[in-house]
Every structure is written in structure tokens, then in C-alpha cells.
Design brief:
191 residues, mainly beta, Neuraminidase, four-stranded antiparallel beta sheet, globular
Length: 191
């Protein structure tokens, strides 16, 4: 896995972070979740973008900062010099997890924890599109912002928090911890 897929790293060092709110009060972010978020360059202390709604998974890719503006369910591209944020894509759910490959990005969608999200742009965006939120994975083409592939999960999987694109891997398999298959996949060497 390339380090560009990890949150806020640049050449192996932490560079950018996202915050839901600038408040120092326990649970204070809940009062400003619609527009209290920011992306910060921690090397300089400079706020790169603010007025965001529950920003998540900041990444450096192709000279820009990418962040999921989860409360509006939009992928944003931020110019690090000016802080100007450009809307790239809308997806119907809370966005978390971001992984790039060429002209494509893989993102996760999660269901809101309490039905339809109230007081957030995501709720208005869903209503405008006559859509319901869902949990799954989407692949977006960065050249035009359209969803090109997707997988939707049923109600038994309401939340996803991250994703990764594995390159140079053959015959990948997902195994459930504690299953017989996982036991068969493990080998132990003596000594």
C-alpha cells in the first residue's frame, strides 16, 4: 500500500489533518457539524480550508488536497495555495475512506446513524435528488466526477470507515477472523 493512501502523509510525515470543529468543548463539534470543519497544514499551522461539514480522510494527490466533506457527501479538491475548494462528486451517504489509482478514486459510503441526516447539507442533497442514503463502495472518475462503479451493502453493514486499493497483488481473498478458512491460510515455521 502506498503511503499516499494514509491520512495526511507527505513523504512519510504527517502533514495535513481534518477537524470537525475548532471548539475545545467535549462534544462541541455537534453544534458546528454543518460548517465548523477545517483542513489544517500541521507543519505550518495554516488553515487550508474551513467552513466544511464533518471533513474526513484528507489526502495529498496530484498536487492537490482531497477531502471528503461528509456532512454534504461531497468529494472536494482543495488548492493548497489558495484554499479554494472545488466540488468533484456527490455520493448518497456519509463519506469516509479515500484511495486513489490513476484517474480514479475509491470511496466508502455509510448510513447516517439516526435515519435521515437533519441540519446537514447531505439531507437537503438527498431530498433534492429524491434519494436514500446507502452503505457501500463507489469508484469515481476524477476527470468528470461521475460514479463509474459501485457496490451497495445491505442493512447488516451500516458503516464503513476506510478503504485501500491494493496494487501488484494477485488472487486477493477476504477472510473472516476466526473462520476455518483463516486457519487454513496461516502457516507456521519451526524455530
Amino acid at each position: 500500500m502506498s503511503e499516499r493512501n494514509l491520512n495526511g502523509l507527505d513523504n512519510g510525515k504527517v502533514r495535513i489533518v481534518s477537524v470537525c470543529s475548532a471548539t475545545g468543548i467535549v462534544d462541541g463539534w455537534r453544534n458546528t457539524r454543518a460548517d465548523g470543519g477545517a483542513v489544517i497544514d500541521i507543519a505550518t499551522g495554516r488553515v487550508l480550508a474551513e467552513g466544511l461539514s464533518m471533513p474526513h480522510s484528507p489526502r495529498l494527490y496530484r498536487g492537490a488536497i482531497w477531502v471528503l466533506n461528509s456532512g454534504s457527501s461531497r468529494l472536494l479538491r482543495i488548492d493548497p495555495a489558495t484554499g479554494k475548494a472545488e466540488r468533484v462528486a456527490f455520493c448518497p451517504g456519509f463519506l469516509r475512506g479515500l484511495s486513489f489509482a490513476g484517474d480514479y478514486v475509491l470511496m466508502t459510503l455509510s448510513l447516517p446513524k439516526s435515519g435521515r441526516p437533519q441540519g446537514l447539507e447531505l439531507g437537503a442533497n438527498l431530498e433534492e435528488r429524491k434519494a436514500e442514503p446507502w452503505c457501500g463502495l463507489v469508484i469515481v472518475d476524477l476527470r468528470h466526477g461521475g460514479i463509474v462503479e459501485w457496490v451497495r451493502f445491505g442493512p447488516e453493514i451500516p458503516q464503513l470507515f476506510d478503504c485501500a486499493i491494493l496494487t501488484d497483488v494477485r488472487c486477493t481473498t477476504a477472510l473472516t477472523p476466526g473462520s476455518a478458512e483463516v486457519q487454513d491460510a496461516m502457516t507456521m515455521e519451526e524455530g
